[in-house]
Each structure stands twice: as C-alpha cells, then as structure tokens.
Amino acid sequence: SSDTTPLLNGSSQDRMFETMAVEIEQLLGKLTGINDKMAEYTNSAGVPSLNAALMHTLQRHRDILQDYTHEFHKTKANFLAIRERENLLGSVRKDIESYKSGSGVNNRRTELFLKEHEHLRNSDRLIEETISIAMATKENMTSQRGMLKSIQSKMNTLANRFPAVNSLIQRINLRKRRDSLILGSVIGICTILLLLYAFH
Questions:
Q1: Any transmembrane segments, and where (predicted)?
Q2: pTM of the entire structure?
Q3: What angle do CA 84, 86, 88 make, to 5 degrees?
Q4: E strand residue ranges, 6-70
C-alpha cells in the first residue's frame, strides 16, 4: 500500500513541510546574522586589514550561506510544484469519477442535447435568412423585368408612332456612308497620283 499511496496525501505532510520550512528559514536567518557579525568583526579597527585567512574564511561562509539559501528555495519550489500537481491530478480524478457515475453521464447527455438543440436553432435561423434573401432577390428581379418591359413597349410605341424619323435616320446613315466612300476614294486617288508623280 505504501507504493500506491501518494506522497502528499494528507494535511499532516503539509503541516510537517510548513514546520520544517519555517525552521530552516529561522536557521538561515541565524546563519545570516552570524555572517554579518563576522563581517562587522573583520571591518572593526582592532583587526588587521591584511589578514587574508580571515577574509577567506568569511568569504567561504558567505558562499556556504548562499548555497544553502539557493538549495532551500529550490527544494521548496519543487515541493510546492509537486503538491500543486498532486492537487490538480486529484481534481481531475474526481471529475472523471463524477462523469463516470450516473449523474455525470446524464449531465453529459443533457449537455450534448442542449448543444444539438442550439445547432438546430442556428440552422433554422440561417435557413430563414437565406429564404428571405431569395424572396427579396425575386422581388427585385420581377420589378426590373417590369421596368424593362415598359421601356421596350415605350420604344416600340415611339418607333411605330414616328416611322418618318426612322426613314430619316436611315437616309442620314446612308449619306454618311456615301460621303465616307467618296472621301476615301478621293484620298486614295490623290495618293496614287502623288506616288506616280514622285517616281516619274
């Protein structure tokens, strides 16, 4: 059972961790105070300033304090991360168990039915919008068709009412074509004559 039991399973482990963390922090504080007193002693007037062994010892104690502090914070952060992960996994297991139970399955089915109902409502709304757009397009096409028919009837009425205008327009077009042909022939003959004169 010790292999399957989680490491962080109860509040007793949490209290033990908090107690040990407080004790270690107190010890680190005491060690920091001792290092400060050592630094004050080395900076006092009665101690020779060139005592290399004393300065080396002080630096060594400072490095040890820094290593202890770093390791403590690293271990504490790792423990908190493991505890958060255990809590998260526990909540996930509870959610899975609740979904596996009958109420969880029913809630899941109800949620799926509600989602399907919402999808159907959205589909109906889209179909109604498409039908309204199609009806509006049909009305516009019908109105445009009526306008085109009225324009065509008016044009036919004008054409039937004014046949002389049509004959006059046809005569004008024929005269324009004849004038264009005459002008083109005159220009062509002049060009040929100029070329013959230039080569002779």
A1: 181-199
A2: 0.39
A3: 70
A4: none
- SS3 (DSSP) at 3: coil
Res 17: pLDDT: 80
As to burial, measured by CB atoms within 10 angstroms (0-12 exposed, 13-18 middle, 19+ buried), residue 65 is middle
C-alpha span between 15 and 89 (Å, rounded): 21
For residue range 53-85, list pLDDT tens digits in order: 777 788 888 888 888 888 888 888 888 888 888
H or E stretch at 143: helix 102-161
Of 181, 186, 182, nearest to 194 (Cα)?
186
Q: pLDDT tens digits, residue range 117-145?
A: 888 888 888 888 888 888 888 888 888 88
Distance of CA 94 to the CA centre of its chain: 32
**CB hemisphere CA count around 97 (13 angstroms):** 6
Helix (H, G, I), strand (E, B) or coil at 154: helix
Our separate counts of H helices and E strands in the chain read 4, 0
